[in-house]
Amino acid sequence: ALQWFRFLGLDAKTVLTFGGISGIAFGLAAQSLVGNFISGILILVTQPFTVDDWIECEDVQGYVRAITWSYTQVETEEGPKVFLPNSAIVNAKTSNRTQGEVRAIETKVPVLFPVGGFKDCNELLSGLEDHLASLDAFKGALAGKPDAHFGILGSEVATGELFVEVDLDNKGLGKTTRLNSILNIEVVKYLQSKGCTVPLLEAE
């Protein structure tokens, strides 16, 4: 074999060294490929998520658009599609919001009622629920009617702490950050339109 290297004008040590490095590189690539393939089978068999589910994996959040033997395609809220190696998904903490029990956004707001308070707090709450449900931003994203209730009511119903929870459907899960911001803004605006004061907002 060494004579053939000399005949071809090649240095045997160089060829053997290059071959060893190439073998290591090929082995690592094959290991990664096999790892993704096995992880893909595991995902397809156990189905921790399926196409159109909303998942969170490390820094990636979005809808699953495709699951192949080697990678999973995720469409993020910002628009770009991300191709996650299946082995990375299996080895990382991955959450499936679509199949989870907690699919809601919520806010908590301290409230000072106008002088004299409200004779009927339920009217205030139902009005807020109807207002949120009518917003264009929430249309097609709700799994049910928003729920508003008071956790704490002060003396003579002059102060209170308002809790608002909104259950989202699968489409809404892809807009949680934006919808949560809208929820906070709209709750405060509604309370102010009814003559209420939000202490934290006034302090700022």
Automatic annotation (TrEMBL):
The keyword S-adenosyl-L-methionine does not apply. Keywords: Membrane, Transmembrane, Transmembrane helix. GO terms for cellular component: membrane. Residues 33-97 form the Mechanosensitive ion channel MscS domain. The chain crosses the membrane at residues 20-45. It is found in: Membrane. It comes from the Eukaryota. InterPro entries: LSM_dom_sf, MscS_archaea/bacteria_type, MscS_beta-dom_sf, MscS_channel_2nd. SUPFAM superfamilies: Sm-like ribonucleoproteins. One of its GO terms (molecular function) is mechanosensitive monoatomic ion channel activity. Gene3D superfamilies: 1.10.287.1260, 2.30.30.60. Pfam families: MS_channel_2nd. This is Mechanosensitive ion channel MscS domain-containing protein.
